[in-house]
Predict the structure.
Amino acid sequence: MADVRVRIAPSPTGPLHIGTARTALYNYLHARHVGGTFILRLEDTDQARSSIAYEKDILDGLHWLGLTWDEGPEVAGDAAKGPHAPYRQMERLELYAEAARQLLAGDKAYPCYCTPDELAAERARQEAAREPPRYWGRCATLTQEERAAFEAEGRRPAIRFRVGEGTVAFDDTIRGHVEIDVANLGGDFVIVRADGSPLYHFVVVVDDAEMAITDVIRGEDHLSNTPKHILLFRALGHELPRFGHLPLILNPDRSKMSKRKSQTALSDYIAQGFIREALVNYLALLGWATGTEEEILSLEEIVLRFDIADVHKGGAVFDRERLEWLNGQWIRRLSSEDLIDRLRPFVAAEHEAGRIDRMPGDEELTALLPVVRDRLPTLGAIGDLAGFLWVDRLDVDTGVLVPKRWDRKTAVEGLTAAAATIDAAAEVAFEADELEPPLRALAEERGWKAGDLFMAIRVAVTGRTATPPLFDTLVALGRERTLERLRAAIELLERSPVIVDGT
RNA sequence: GCCCCCAUCGUCUAGAGGCCUAGGACGCCACCCUUUCAAGGUGGAGAUCAGGGGUUCGAAUCCCCUUGGGGGCACCA
């Protein structure tokens, strides 16, 4: 399959949607697998809803995923890439105007003078009569005189495409043979608004034709629209591309994944600390499988194995838990330097948000990595996991400071003895290996379960019951702060009134 | 309403007529490891392959119907 050309054509009317990201990925995978060309085109004809901020979010998202395009618009001073520039539809208006003139000249399209109000009234009537909504064709057969009369009224015409009769059939790369009767298309449809701006179904065809797209790979929501596109391709005298319709990504209730019911913006996943390797891996496996039992796959490995014909037909529910698991798998596979680079912005975010009081240096993070790595489902979890290391004043809940099997008095004794033991051990070296034995010995000597002693210390120095391994944590904290927090905890226990008993 | 598409454990999926008393993964449960939490290891529960008819010696796999779900029917994309 030489000379395959595919495209992703997002419209900058919202942040990059997880579904668009997957469509982009599948297009990219197909292009790379067969050695074809991957094109990015911006569909910004809906000027009312398009924005430059969304455009940036989309481009950044695709870059972040590693889906580099071979042809695409100029961005941030970099010139457009590719022989079919410009790649922004608002800069291609002349092309559409020319195509519209061509259709009008061949009477494959006609001016329609129906007003929005008239159209709405007719639609309401159809709905009331329980008829399927369709344009009833009032302007399809207007004479020159009638058109002139409307023009004289000051009406500006939209342009409608004649769908004609018959059935349109095509062989979908993913779904196989599909056939739709033109009568079910909803009548002649508008391709150019009354204000002269072209509409989606029209521009997509003009552009796919002009850009010589060979494979249109897109979401299933376009399957029913494909006959319109095919009709347009033919009317314009262009060869048809192959069409492949991807299954939809679904909300847990199996409806099309939406902002209302799911987190759909890729940028939100990025902000929470999902990493590109995991997202790419997860998205690739949502609707496609290798046929083997391998599932942790890099983008390169997926490119090698991907075959558009193996893509599923049924929709797939987006399962965040599985994504988190994959994310953890990938975080564990990152090199230390890489992980630190990716972690730093998340630590900085904690700092900016005021949840921690200082930024740890690289050496500190590096030292922490071994104990933190297996405990990070996302990069964003770093604050929860280790934030206590970087705060000046720790908030400790007296309630959890006393281990379940202990009473308050024992806790005070335990922490006091632990502080002394730690202080003594630190004279040798403040290292995990030096701290653990004497503390275990202390517990044994006093008849305490080591776990209880450790838990009291853990809560005293971290404020929480779930933390990385205790001795590594103490080392990360440093001798001074460890002792300081131990003293503060003891004081807290002695000072606070006894409310509950058993203590 | 009309048209189109889809249908294997809760979820993602393997499966292209006999290898399936349906395999893997996530999640869940138990155990092991263990100072907590994870990670890791082992084991388990979990799908009469939506239902019903065919075809065939034989069907999760092919055909038909039913049911269920989804999508589309804009001067949105």
Notes: The first strand of chain A starts at residue 5 and ends at 8.
